[in-house]
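Exercise 7b. Backbone tokens:
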């Protein structure tokens, strides 16, 4: 694709995205900002109440602390999970390094705060993350260097000698052969050391500066995204762009006249455009675009990074790229749309309605306190009547010549209507004074279960927003940070973690991980977690006490981890001040422990030997008693068996005798014909 064709493609995509942006989102964001700042609605009437209800601002500021609390419960925003046993160590290091980059290399709290707040007010919060190369030149002076020291210094490729002075020190040296050697030399050197470094940079992008293609469902399937901003001529020249091209496009930029930007600063300044005459400080329109296109004409689209300046979008940089360096969130997701809905969007109609009701109520109170009067013409001194002052006298020719015209009060109808509006707001957002613990009357008369149910129901909406933020923008942010350091960082970097200096080399993370978002949802409040940790610690203490250190259930390291969690739930981030880590003990302490273990193995403990002998005696006694009981039981069983056999033998013999006797009787009856057997009793 040639330059003209490609520039035409870029210009078309930018203009189409700008038109879509201006028609679909600009007006809504201007309205949201105006409502958040509590600016006049435009329907004010002179002489009437012009108060504005700040419903949008109040609700956003009620949600923000809970969102920040959810994400601030732990220093780790995400955790990389290994896909196999071989990835465990790499996943743990990636987790620590990525969270360190967000919180230490960048201002993590400020970034996430603005990220979330933009989403609540403007429907979308946008972050841009990229690799920033920095170069710093420092001047250093060295004096009295020897030849060897100077040679070692000049071997450093990062330095440039700017001044050098040599002088003789001492006297010439005579060699054994009579030759004269020159005296030693000393050198004074001035050098410039250039320090080059690279870091992941994370920036909040104002919503009006972010462009994307129409009908995009997510960043993964988006065809075109761009960051359209303005930079000074000096900033662009420091980045290495051609001076003639930059100065030719300097001056007026259309971003200065964007209604959104003017609305953002309307309460702070009355002039939006920079009118400096110094060309080095004039603004230049800069559009950094990322587009999927078949640039090489091979039938496959790829991502191209393009930097275009000026209103004609002159391309000054064009390169192949590997991702869209943006993360975007919306509080309320809309299926099949990249930008969903915001909290401010849900409340603008309520703010307008409550403002109108409150204005009417205040106007009614003003009229009641300063009611119109009726006066009989010619019977009242009008000057006295017009001069409305406390304790003033109104002269009348007869009583009753002045009658107040008191308007009816609308308070009885206005306050229930305002309460209804509050109920509608609670239904839409889930937030109320009772749920935040601010309504003492509502909570003191309720049971603990009812209070917990009220608070939990309100927190469900905030937790849903937090989960959406975590699973969309925050997860993508962390994956992109890891990808950036893998792509650009060469070699190890020493960082400080848990008061220890740990080397991090992203090139060793040669595998992909599953991302687990680590937000404080569904884990209960701090008191419940403290109770859970205390129960776990008690069980671990029981196991360690009864089963020893070499038990199959827990180690001292796991017990220490539980104690650290208890401190963290109590607001103490570092446990190193209170408990040592068994896996990272100081060398001197490790040596003492080893000496004690060797001493214990070398000499027998007399008390332990006595206890062991007692246990052996008790065991032998118990075994003898068991054997004796077994013999007694066997003897009793044998005796019982013999008695049963004798009894059965006696019964058998008696039965045989009876049968023989009966046979004799039947023989006698048969020979005599008499029935003798009927008179013989049966046993």
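Sequence design result:
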């Amino acid at each position: 694709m040639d330059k003209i064709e490609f520039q035409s493609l870029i210009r078309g995509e930018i203009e189409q995205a700008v038109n879509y942006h201006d028609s679909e989102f600009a007006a809504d964001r201007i309205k949201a900002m105006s409502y958040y700042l509590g600016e006049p609605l435009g329907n004010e009437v002179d002489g009437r109440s012009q108060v504005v209800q700040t419903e949008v601002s109040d609700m956003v500021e009620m949600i923000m602390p809970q969102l920040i609390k959810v994400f601030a419960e732990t220093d780790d925003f995400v955790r990389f999970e290994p896909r196999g046993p071989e990835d465990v160590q790499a996943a743990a290091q990636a987790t620590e390094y990525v969270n360190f980059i967000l919180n230490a290399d960048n201002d993590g709290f400020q970034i996430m705060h603005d990220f979330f707040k933009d989403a609540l007010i403007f429907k979308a919060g946008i972050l841009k993350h990229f690799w920033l190369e920095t170069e710093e030149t420092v001047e250093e002076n060295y004096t009295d260097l020897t030849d060897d020291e100077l040679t070692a210094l000049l071997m450093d490729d990062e330095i440039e000698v700017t001044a050098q002075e040599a002088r003789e020190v001492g006297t010439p040296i005579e060699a054994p052969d009579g030759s004269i050697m020159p005296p030693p030399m000393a050198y004074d050197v001035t050098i410039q050391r250039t320090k080059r470094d690279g870091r992941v940079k994370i920036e909040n992008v104002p919503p009006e500066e972010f462009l994307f293609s129409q009908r995009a469902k997510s960043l993964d399937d988006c065809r075109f995204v761009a960051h359209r901003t303005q930079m000074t001529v000096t900033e662009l020249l420091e980045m290495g762009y051609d001076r003639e091209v930059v100065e030719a496009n300097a001056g007026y930029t259309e971003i200065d006249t964007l209604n959104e930007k003017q609305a953002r600063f309307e309460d702070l300044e009355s002039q939006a455009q920079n009118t400096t005459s110094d060309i080095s400080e004039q603004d230049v329109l800069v559009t950094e675009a990322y587009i999927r296109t078949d640039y090489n004409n091979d039938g496959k689209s790829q991502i191209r990074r393009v930097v275009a300046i000026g209103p004609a979008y002159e391309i000054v940089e064009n390169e192949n790229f590997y991702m869209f360096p943006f993360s975007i969130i919306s509080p309320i997701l809309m299926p099949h749309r990249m930008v969903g809905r915001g909290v401010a969007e849900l409340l603008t109609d309520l703010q307008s309605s409550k403002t109108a009701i409150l204005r009417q109520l205040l106007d009614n109170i003003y009229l009641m306190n300063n009611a119109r009067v009726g006066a009989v013409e010619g019977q009242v001194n009008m000057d006295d009547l017009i001069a409305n002052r406390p304790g003033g006298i109104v002269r009348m020719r007869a009583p009753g010549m002045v009658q107040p015209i008191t308007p009816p009060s609308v308070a009885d109808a206005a306050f229930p209507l305002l309460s209804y509006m509050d109920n509608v707001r609670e239904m839409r957002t889930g937030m109320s004074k009772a749920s935040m613990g601010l309504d003492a009357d509502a909570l003191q008369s309720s049971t603990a279960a009812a209070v917990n149910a009220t608070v939990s129901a309100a927190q469900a909406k905030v937790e849903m927003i937090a989960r959406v933020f975590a699973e969309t923008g925050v997860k993508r942010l962390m994956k992109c940070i890891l990808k950036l350091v893998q792509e650009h960082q060469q070699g190890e970097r020493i960082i400080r973690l848990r008061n220890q200096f740990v080397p991090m080399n992203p090139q060793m993370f040669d595998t992909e991980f599953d991302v687990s978002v680590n937000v404080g949802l569904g884990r209960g409040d701090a008191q419940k977690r403290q109770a859970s940790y205390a129960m776990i610690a008690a069980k671990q203490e029981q196991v360690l006490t009864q089963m020893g250190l070499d038990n199959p259930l827990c180690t001292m390291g796991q017990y220490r981890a539980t104690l650290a969690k208890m401190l963290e739930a109590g607001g103490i981030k570092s446990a190193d001040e209170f408990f040592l880590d068994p896996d990272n003990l100081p060398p001197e302490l490790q040596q003492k422990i080893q000496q004690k273990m060797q001493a214990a193995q070398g000499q027998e403990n007399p008390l332990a030997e006595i206890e062991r002998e007692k246990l052996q005696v008790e065991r032998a006694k118990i075994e003898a008693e068991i054997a004796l009981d077994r013999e007694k039981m066997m003897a009793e069983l044998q005796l019982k068996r013999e008695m049963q056999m004798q009894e059965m033998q006696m019964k058998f013999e008696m039965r045989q005798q009876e049968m023989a006797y009966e046979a004799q009787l039947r023989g006698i009856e048969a020979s005599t014909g008499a029935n003798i057997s009927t008179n013989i009793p049966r046993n």
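Instructor comment: The first helix runs from residue 3 to 37. The chain has a mean pLDDT of 82.
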